[in-house]
Amino acid sequence: MELMANAMAQEAVSRTADRVAQEARRGGEDELRLERFMNNKPPIFKGGYDPDGAQTWLEGIERIFGAMRCQDEHRVLLGGYVLHDEADHWWGNAKQRLEVDGAILTWARFKREFLTKY
């Protein structure tokens, strides 16, 4: 009985260690993705009423996403990373509002919200 309990405990520890290692790898992948993105010198968008600037910003960001073969789930995070000043405040509020509504934050949804605002 004690051997079985020890085996189960060791299995639980092993699963936990595997899960921690997997999360660490994922965190490392996120850091590498961000580093690769920033090495492409993405444009910064600060906000204000600027429809042409907003469209130009989106085109520049999407060009980088294409070169990186960036998945949709990462685009929102990376795109939001290069919003500064007023645009960063806007996105923080918009993201919070969308998450409360239970919306999935896709890149298409981000673009729609962004172009509606700017």
UniProtKB/TrEMBL annotation:
Superkingdom = Eukaryota
Q: Can you say what this protein is called?
A: Cellular nucleic acid-binding protein
**Source organism:** Trifolium medium
